[in-house]
Design a protein that fits this description.
Radius of gyration: 13 Å
Shape: globular
Strand content: 35-45%
Number of helices: 2
Helix content: 10-25%
């Protein structure tokens, strides 16, 4: 498990564009700052981070501002796109995605 909202964990990871959770039941926790610092700038003003894995894996988008945008079909897989501000995360379909709801305690 990797919590990139924690400074000690985030400092260990630099300059990536794809996180492969490998279908091993991994949990990746991200916030906007982590995506902006780790992701790859797109041609526009968006910073992208791709996440691959399977239904055994889970991604926690740690802020309630994240919203689902669309589903992209790539040659090898389908990805669900989540946005907040200039950060974009493309998560392979089938991976569980958790986003906190304002006013509810974390699960």
């Amino acid at each position: 498990n990797l919590d990139l909202t924690e400074p000690a964990d985030a400092a260990r990871v630099v300059g990536i564009e794809v996180v492969d959770l490998a279908g091993q039941g991994g949990v990746l926790t991200l916030d906007t700052a982590a995506v902006l610092s780790l992701g790859t700038p797109d041609l526009g003003a968006t910073t992208l981070l791709w996440i691959t894995g399977s239904g055994a894996d889970r991604v926690v988008l740690a802020e309630p501002e994240w919203t689902y945008s669309t589903t992209l079909v790539e040659t090898s897989a389908t990805f669900d796109v989540y946005l907040t501000g200039s950060a974009e995360v493309r998560i392979q379909s089938g991976i569980t995605v958790d986003i906190p709801v304002v006013g509810l305690p974390p699960a």
